[in-house]
Amino acid sequence: MDWIRFNRRTPCPVCQGERSDCRQNTTTGLVYCRSHEANPVDYLYRGQDTWGFNIWANKADAEEWAQQNRQEWQREQQRQRDLEQQQQREQLNALLSIPERDKVIREILDQLTLSDAHREILRNRGISDREIEESNYRSVKQWQKLSSPVTNELSGVKYDGLSLINHTDGILIPIPNEEGLYTHLRVNDLTPGTENKYYPLSSSKRGVKYHLPSGEQPIAVYLPQEAPQKPIIGFTEGLEYKPLLASSNVGIPIIGASGGNFGSSPGAIEAAIASIKERYGWDENTQFILYADAGAIINGNVAIAYSKLGEIVPDLT
Ligand SMILES: [Zn+2]
Question: Domain map of the chain by residue range?
Fold first, then answer.
């Protein structure tokens, strides 16, 4: 470390030569001055060193240093954000495609059955025997074991491929998209008083999300048994029984979103609408109807979610 020692010819900029033992560190630019009288306008007090020298930093230097520090900090923050985005992209890129997921989900469904008690519960909800069969509902025990292993690349499958990540007993519900392909598995937890009646099976802890490869939340699409009479597409909250029943009761295709969060799946909703229109040969006159919950009026979050749906589907009624 090099020092400038101040003397009478080049006096200390802090005490203006009051003392003769002042010095400046040429690396840091800090001035070490023992004066107790000095109160220089251009310098900021930075504390005292172990020998009792007061340490002063030039204000201009200090500001430049702070500015550099701030820029460095911002660059570091940006670097962190870029890194996180890259990790997210890599995670999404590693996810199974929807046709691949559908195949693995059906391998799982083939190993499981629906109990009579659960069938009765579904009937009591107004779901017909045919709908129960076609929906491929299954009964699961907590951490459901599989008799033959499936790939752990499907979210919700344990890393060994031999069990499911369901923390409760319940009814296993495969969620269909507009092509009838299963995107992910959910469980209807029938425990009385449970907070989450429906939850997705997820391996997100090891980086395998149940999200769509686009990063959006999966939606559910249920088509009616018979081709609909009028070009109407409905929307409901939920991915499970509610959109299924709405579709069969009203006789129209229904798109469901978990918690009514349509804003989390704009691309998936647009793709589903396009697919439904093409399926039935519908044109621009297709109508969109929202089947809002009774609770939607009082629940602010749901109201916001519905207004987001209005942004995706502008002529919603
Ligand atoms: Zn001095």
Answer: 1-94, 97-206, 216-317
| β-strands 287-291, 232-237 pairing | parallel
Does domain 97-206 fall under CATH 3.40.920.10? My reply is no
| Token pair belonging to 30 | 């800090």
Write out the two tokens for 165.
């990540």
Predicted confidence (pLDDT) per residue in 154-198, tens digit: 999 999 999 999 999 999 999 999 999 999 999 999 999 998 999
What percent of the chain stands above pLDDT 90? 73
For residue 85, which phi and psi values (nearest 5 degrees)? Answer: -60, -40
Distance 31 CA to ligand 1 centre (A): 8
Query: Distance from the CA of 12 to the center of ligand 1, in angstroms?
Result: 4
How many A from CA of 19 to the centre of ligand 1? 5
Ligand 1 center–CA 36 separation, angstroms: 9
The partner residues of 57 in beta bridges, in order of sequence, read 44
Report the separation in Å between the CA atom of 66 and the middle of ligand 1, taken as the mean of its atom positions.
Answer: 24
User: Which residues are within 5 Å of ligand 1 (an ion), measured at CB?
Assistant: 12, 14-15, 19, 22, 33, 35
Q: Which tokens in the block code for residue 264?
A: 């989390």
